[in-house]
Write a structure and sequence with these properties.
Elements lengths: L2 H15 L6 E5 L5 H10 L3 E4 L2 H14 L4 E4 L8 H7 L2 E5 L2 H14 L4 E6 L15 H11 L3 E7 L7 H14 L4 E3 L6 H6 L4 E4 L1 H4 L4
Parallel strand pairs: 1-2, 1-8, 2-3, 3-4, 4-5, 5-6, 6-7
């Protein structure tokens, strides 16, 4: 199946489900060369996800100049020393999870006169190998980002623990997102995106189901 057909199939599956949300599909293009991605760019798709600043810079810097409506999403862990370049390249950050990074992003936004959109990453399973805020710290952190740093926080983002029951975690993050008054929610990947849509995902991050397996 072509990557265009894969994208069309995902959209149709979501439409046929009759769930209330119509999520933005972020085509996760990390590790794939631009020539592999070009068919769906030419098809009109404009939201793409990368997880490394350096790779994104090499791949997208030139094409972004000619496609002003192309939207780049940083979906990987972001270190504060990469914040300057991230603000230059990206339109969305899905992995905001600490005060040092938030301060640096705010500073770089002002320098570049560019407003990005942010999701606060939550570590639902308190897993050491994953980034994300503790649930207990979320309220104070979000208020600090929004009120003190003037960051445009859209909602929460989470990657559920790999325990085979993503719906339990999607339900939890969806409820938390609602409690905090957010209208956007970044959850769901190739193996569980329909479960994420069921629980109100506004942004789903799909890589292999569109582009195929990574080598």
């Amino acid at each position: 199946m072509s990557i265009i057909n894969s994208l069309i199939k995902i959209k149709q599956e979501i439409k046929d489900s009759n769930f209330a949300t119509d999520p933005e599909i972020i085509a996760v293009s990390k590790t794939f060369p631009l020539e592999h991605i070009m068919p769906i760019i030419k098809h009109g798709h404009r939201h793409f996800g990368e997880n490394k600043v350096q790779e994104a810079e090499k791949k997208w810097s030139e094409i972004k100049k000619s496609l002003e409506n192309l939207q780049l999403h940083m979906i990987g862990s972001l270190q504060s020393n990469k914040a300057k370049k991230a603000v230059e390249l990206f339109d969305y950050i899905h992995s905001l999870d600490n005060e040092k990074l938030a301060k640096e992003l705010s500073k770089r936004q002002i320098e570049k006169n560019k407003l990005l959109k942010y999701f606060i990453q939550v570590n639902l399973g308190s897993e050491d190998q994953k980034g994300g805020m503790k649930i207990s710290d979320l309220k104070l952190f979000s208020e600090y980002c929004y009120n003190d740093l003037k960051l445009n926080i859209l909602g929460l983002m989470a990657i559920p623990p790999n325990d085979g029951i993503p719906e339990k975690h999607f339900k939890k993050i969806s409820e938390l997102n609602h409690e905090m008054g957010f209208k956007n929610l970044s959850i769901g990947m190739s193996n569980d995106y329909m479960k994420a849509v069921k629980y109100g995902a506004s942004h789903i991050r799909i890589g292999s189901y569109i582009f195929g397996s990574r080598t």
